[in-house]
Amino acid sequence: xxxxxxxxxxxxxxxxxxxxxxxxxxxxxxxxxxxxxxxxxxxxxxxxxxxxxxxxxxxxxxxxxxxxxxxxxxxxxxxxxxxxxxxxxxxxxxxxxxxxxxxxxxxxxxxxxxxxxxxxxxxxxxxxxxxxxxxxxxxxxxxxxxxxxxxxxxxxxxxxxxxxxxxxxxxxxxxxxxxxxxxxxxxxxxxxxxxxxxxxxxxxxxxxxxxxxxxxxxxxxxxxxxxxxxxxxxxxx
Length: 237
Hints:
With 237 residues, this protein is mostly helical. Helix content is 63%, strand content 0%.
């Protein structure tokens, strides 16, 4: 069985990319990520931007271990202290008093950055009420002037893993709904195109009939004129 991965693998990988000379392979293996994910993060091509998390400060790596890895690209980093598993119990998330004032900032960030996430998901992730979420969305919150959108992971309101899971679930649901709406839109579009085509054909028929009538009237007028001219010429003779 391999060693455990960091508590926040994407955030840890971001920190290692920005602050060390470790290879992408070393970072990917230590964080339990695919090397292409690490490459995309390094090139700023990843779909989500992560705030770096220092694994040395978290006790998961030592500076000596990082230096050993930088000196030997083939060296595999060793976890110094496995992250403590965080277990969730049923009921609302407990948030320390010192962080409760940060909840509105975290909620505002999610509303701005991931509008596809439902109020129920935000409520469960952050540990808040739907009334608070609605007040922040509609800017009727009593402290709205002081609320600044901030990443809830950085604020310590949830882990990157939990946020990633919620985003993925919301995106999947939104994708299914978007597909259904796209099909419905296509159906409406086909119907509209058919109506437009029928109207065009009707207008073309009406125009053709009108032009035919005008031509017939012109021909009748011309025939009458010629007959009148012929009659006048016969009278003069």
